[in-house]
Amino acid sequence: MDSSSLDHTRNAAEAEPSWDDLKIFLAVVAHGSMNGAGRALGQSQPTIARRMRTLEECLGVDLFQRGPNSLVLTEAGRAVLEAASPMAEAAGSVPKLAAAYRPDPAAPVRLTATMSVTLFLSHHAGSLAQATAPIEIAYIPMRRKADLAAGEADIALRMRRMPEGDDLVVRKIGRIAFAVYASSPDVAAVIVPPEDPHLSTQAALIARFADGRPIAARIGDVPIRYQATKAGLGAAVLPCWMGDADPALVRVMDPPEDMIEDIYLVTHPRGRNRANIAQVSSALVDLFKRERRALIGDLPGK
């Protein structure tokens, strides 16, 4: 290679590759051919081939070994693929992230919580709807922590420990207690949660109560566990607001202090300036204040 060609290659390799060309490169890899990438992108095969040559010249390396009917990534091509793939994923999340920042008064406020707390909210959905009208609330029960920064939800209700993160606005709004309930004071068996770290404190509580009683079933889903308890299958851990409100159930073990968990209302800072999120947050604070005694299992006369 003469000095002029060497200088051209060196200068090209120092240039910044076009993101459009990198996207075409990813499409070629994904579809296995330039024809396939062209069909997916609505471009001709010669255009795809030309853009790949431009990218290779810019980078100063061959990305493919070209055969009569095949394309095989070179070692350099595999390295570029590994570097470019996260860029594509990040770029794909941009519209979703941007949408989370766009104010839309008509959009539902997405509220996520554990199943126990979501069930509690559903029992008071009428009063919440009245307090927040005409705002629509979307209830999203989930055990894992929703990523508020990525726009998975607008409000999260989290339990046990105060959520951490510089990009979160956190407020403690109440407490929720769990106790052991049965259909009769004479308990022959117990219903336990499955082996799940999210339910470990509940598993410990029912194990403390069991005292040699056999396990009738392992049920993690709270509504199903509640119905099985009412049916007389055995004693189980339930939220106090649920167990105390049902005359068909009796509390056979009061909630110990370690089963009274703090509840935190969590939003992202961008939600501060959204009237609909602020209104739903205020209604939630009022609800948890109003139902404080039921949530912590404070029975009348006790």
Summarize this structure briefly.
By secondary structure, the protein is α/β, with parallel strands linked by helices. The chain has helices at residues 3-13, 19-31, 34-41, 45-59, 75-101, 115-123, 125-132, 200-210, 222-230, 240-245, 275-290, 292-295, and strands at residues 64-67, 70-73, 109-113, 137-141, 155-159, 169-182, 190-192, 215-218, 236-239, 250-253, 260-267.
Describe the structure in your own words.
The protein has 302 residues and is an alpha/beta fold. It is built from 12 helices and 11 strands. The strands form 3 sheets. Strands 3, 4, 5, 6, 9, 10 and 11 form a 7-stranded mixed sheet that branches. Strands 1-2 form a two-stranded antiparallel sheet. It has a two-stranded parallel sheet with strand order 7-8. Helix 2 crosses helix 3 (34-41), helix 3 (34-41) crosses helix 4 and helix 7 packs across helix 11 (275-290). The chain starts with a helix and ends in a 7-residue tail after the last helix. The relative contact order is 0.12. This is LysR family transcriptional regulator. Residues 17-74 form the HTH lysR-type domain.
